[in-house]
Amino acid sequence: MRTDTPQTIYRKDYTPPTYQVETVELGFDLDPDRTIVASRLVMVSNPESVGEGIELHGVNLQLVSLRMNGRTLYEGDYDISGGILRIPAAPDRVTLEIETLTSPVKNTTLSGLYVSNGNFFTQCEAEGFRSITYFPDRPDVMAKFTVMLRADKNRYPVLLSNGNLVEEGDLDDGRHFAKWEDPFKKPSYLFALVAAKLVCQEENFRLKDGRDALLQVWVEDGNLDKTDYAMQSLKNSIRWDEERFGLELDLDRFMIVAVSDFNMGAMENKGLNIFNTKFVLANPRVATDVDYAGIEAVVGHEYFHNWTGNRVTCRDWFQLSLKEGLTVFRDQEFSADMIGTDSGRAVTRIEQVRTLRQAQFPEDAGPMAHPVRPDSFVEINNFYTVTVYEKGAEVVRMYQTLLGRDGFRKGMDLYFERHDEQAVECDDFRAAMADANGRDLAQFERWYSQAGTPVVTASSRYDANAGAFALTLSQSCPATPGQPDKLPFHIPVAVGLLGADGKDIELTVDGKKAGATAVLELTEPSQTFQFTGVKQAPIPSILRDFSAPIVLDYPYTDEQLLHLFSHDSDPVNRWEAGQRLAMERLLAMTAAAGSGGQLALDDTFIDAMRKILVDESLDPAFRENALLLPSESMVAEQMDMVNPQAIHLARQSMRKAIGSTLRKEFHAQYEANQTPGDYSPDAISAGKRGLKNLALAYLSAAPDDAINMLAQGQFDRAGNMTDRVAALVSLIQSAAPGAADALERFYAEFDNEALVVDKWFAIQAAAPGADVAAVRALMKHPAFTLKNPNRARSLIFNFCNGNPAQFHAPDGSGYAFWAEQVKALDALNPQVASRLARSMDRWRRYAPALQAQMKNALEKVAGAGKLSNDVNEVVSKALTN
Fold first, then answer.
1. Using CA atoms, how far apart are residues 306 and 325, in angstroms rounded to an integer?
2. N or C: which end of the chain has fewer CB within 10 A?
3. Confidence grade of residue 3 (pLDDT, cut at 50, 70, 90)
4. CATH of range 604-880; options 1.10.3660.10, 2.40.30.170, 1.25.50.10, 1.10.2020.10
5. Whole-Å CA distances, 856 to 490, 818, 843
6. How many beta carbons lie within 10 A of that of residue 12, not counting itself?
7. Tens of pLDDT, residues 161-173
8. Does residue 6 surpass a pLDDT of 90?
């Protein structure tokens, strides 16, 4: 949405709606150019409201007629301004009949009702419903919906909406209709419709209570062979939620629909989930192991919203993490349980921690920093962030860490008992957890209200005579925009102690036995915890399983980190020790690269990597993660003044040193982790492919003819997309003679597979030699379009966010390119544009010459004229905070 003067909305200003809606009847006569929407709303005044009159939201609508209790209203009876239709004089109970016109084919924002590939789809979260019809479009207005869809039967043979299908049939003039009824109250953001030419895979699924539910996955013709994994993931999700949380599917059917033009990953509309094709379509020919994992997680996430988001929803958009943070935690637990092994769970946890470090911690330290429950926003679409989602999930995980798995389940049960079919706040969830377990969680509220990443500084002292080990933990949190000072958090810190033999020491903490791992509750600015019965000087393993989203500062020596990297029973901390060792060396090598010094890597570190690589007792997926170096962006976050070219040179040099020194070992692991036979995305097979392809990547960092032939051979013979992409990336990264030919062959084979073409663009955008000129050339390719978010992300976002050395070119060409694309995207799709705008919000941390050019690019966007609220908020905060 564009406004002349963007308005800041504050959580403290929340007021209940003046009227609630009991029932909604919607009728759609669907036409791409001219869709007629008729609605009948039964509304009652809200005794809890302090306002008067009826307020309905509406954007880009043509009002055809408005009737209240059977009487036509004319100008003077109502007012439309600032996107709100106001009826000042209304009785306590009213029936409103509204008819509007809209043009879905002209809607490039992909919000509201729009057309994609000739088909109708909707996306109403967060405020898309107001571009469909006038309505109190806020999450605390919940109503029961009945929907009638009418459209040309030949062009749109499939008509879908929320809930249960109650009637369908043919009309005159080649049209047909379908009537849908949702038996549960929902806010307007959960409304959905689809009118399209689609085919479906369907199954009847027996629920735990004995009912049969119809499950459907709808896709465009030609994609039905790519739906099996999504269907299986849906069935697994339903069964898991029944068993883990006692939550059952509450409808007669559950539908997933895949669309190629979609701003998000997916949307949890009640009973009719609309998905980006990226998170539905998969078979071995076109999808990688990462794609399969993403499908399982996103299908689970959207299904789990049926209870955590739909049956219980948000009072207002400031409470977004109430549903998103909780549901991310649920999909994380689901994916871990689907693997079913301790090592598999550990690998998923490591991947979650890596996401936090790469994306959420920088957000906490940047101009867009905000609490898990924000206090204000200009555009709510800008707050679908890693803070709300991933950090929000960490906050939920901390409840389980503090209360235990059974205690967490008790809290969930009480939450649904209290709040089913209500719109509530984050505090209501916290209260359910506290009350169900008899715990005081008042201080825990600060995780919702305070922004920033807490820093926990640890120090220790060992008394050999007393057999006592004292661990002192002190907490602080850096200032963030609008929050200069922070109060102490309630932080669960899981701790173990390792002896010289690498084994865990049984713990007694402050007089209580705690087994191998103790969860210490840090609530004061500084606390000391006493471990007794410690017969030898231990090495502390602090923050096991990443028990809180914090930065840990403990003065580990190299010897201690090497000990933890070799022996820690907690896989997350074992991985973390290796990351710390690597980061120390990457920072030193970056400093050397920046000053023209020698780039050298010590044998001690390489030997530690060797031991992990060849340790067959370790899961291949764990070894892959343990050997993966911190990304260039993570290195940048550790520097006061960022030099992207020096970081890139240091990391590439480090990879080359490891790859050349451990060539024999990497080659052996490459051969040992082959997965012959038919492709399977199971965790064991995926782990082997991951380690094999990491070995190939390290070998390709120090390539010769033999290594290039190895990569070329894998590319030529690959029986699945995982191996094909890994080989192609290796050929490009090593600038092998066959790289250009492989790229051409790859595109020629998959030019009709949109998701694979996205991969083709993405691989080139992130290539070391991909400068701005190369990206501009790719934008002229017939397959490229800015209008499709997936395609824009694959090329432009991957260059700006995934190729820092080239994006931050000293001549400023990357920044000029960024400014052009932000403005171009803003005219089409502000949500996508604002995501790209975030690429520059950390500009103040770069070297002065880069800073000046980045600021200039930001100012060019800011002065470009009438920006959307989405982009204006991001750019303004980047320049002022």
1. 14
2. C
3. low
4. 1.25.50.10
5. 42, 12, 11
6. 7
7. 999 999 999 999 9
8. no
Of 537, 458, 533, 441, the closest CA to residue 493 belongs to 458
**CATH of segment(s) 313-449:** 1.10.390.10
- Nearest CA-CA partner of 247 in 417, 467, 424: 417
Residue partners of 695: CB distance under 8 A and separation at least 6: 666, 667, 669, 670, 673
Task: Supply the pLDDT for residue 865.
Answer: 85
Residue ranges, comma separated, of all CATH 2.60.40.1730 domains in the chain are: 1-197
Burial class, 828, CB count within 10 angstroms (exposed 0-12 / middle 13-18 / buried 19+): middle
How far are the Cα atoms of 22, 134, 275 from residue 40, in angstroms, in the given order? Answer: 11, 11, 29
Burial class of residue 712 (count of CB atoms within 10 Å of its CB; 0-12, 13-18, 19+): buried
At 504, list the tokens.
């865990």
Q: How many Cβ atoms sit within 10 Å of the Cβ of residue 559?
A: 10
Residue 586: how many other CB atoms lie within 10 Å = 23
CB 406 within 8 A of CB 303: no
Catalytically annotated residues: 302
Q: What is the mean pLDDT of the chain?
A: 97
How many residues appear in the chain? 881
| Cα torsion 858, 870, 328, 451: sign | positive
Return the CATH number of 1-197, one of 3.90.1150.10, 3.50.30.10, 2.60.40.1730, 2.30.33.40.
2.60.40.1730
For residue 778, give the amino acid letter: L
Distance of CA 126 to the CA centre of its chain: 16
Q: Which two tokens stand for residue 450?
A: 């305070």
- The answer to whether the beta carbons of residues 267 and 192 sit under 8 Å apart is yes
Q: Compute the distance between CA of residue 808 and CA of residue 771 in angstroms, rounded to an integer.
A: 10
CB 128 within 8 A of CB 189: yes
Please name the residues in contact with 267: beta carbons below 8 A apart, sequence gap of 6 or more.
Answer: 123, 124, 125, 192, 273, 274, 275, 302
Asked if residues 538 and 499 have their Cβ atoms less than 8 Å apart, the reply is yes
The conformation of residue 381, written as its DSSP 8-state character, comes to: G
The burial class, CB within 10 Å (0-12 / 13-18 / 19+), for 876 is: middle
Measured in whole angstroms, the distance separating CA 234 from the mean position of its chain's CA atoms is 19
Average pLDDT of span 363-375: 98
- For residue 92, give the H/E element and its range: none
Structure tokens at 489: 């958090």
Asked whether the beta carbons of 263 and 306 are under 8 A apart, the reply is no
Q: What is the pLDDT of residue 2?
A: 59
* Res 626 pLDDT > 80: yes
Q: Where in the chain is the domain with CATH 1.25.50.10?
A: 604-880
Pairing of strands 112-116, 376-377: unpaired
- 3-state SS class at 306: coil
As a whole number of angstroms, the distance between CA 142 and CA 425 comes to 15
Amino acid in position 358 = Q
Full-prediction pTM beyond 0.85? yes
Q: Which part of the chain has CATH 1.10.390.10?
A: 313-449
455-548 is classed CATH 2.60.40.1840: yes
Question: For every residue of 633-647, which 3-state class applies, written as one string?
Answer: HHHHHCCCCECHHHH
Over the range 399-423, which residues count as b (16 or more CB within 10 Å of their CB) and which as e?
Answer: bbbbbeeebbbbbbebbbebbeeeb
| Collapsed DSSP state (helix, strand, coil) of residue 638 | coil
Measured from the Cβ of residue 259, the count of other Cβ atoms closer than 10 Å reads: 27
The Cα–Cα gap between 395 and 691 comes to 32
Q: What is the DSSP pairing of strand 71-72 with strand 62-68?
A: antiparallel
Q: Which two tokens stand for residue 402?
A: 């503090």
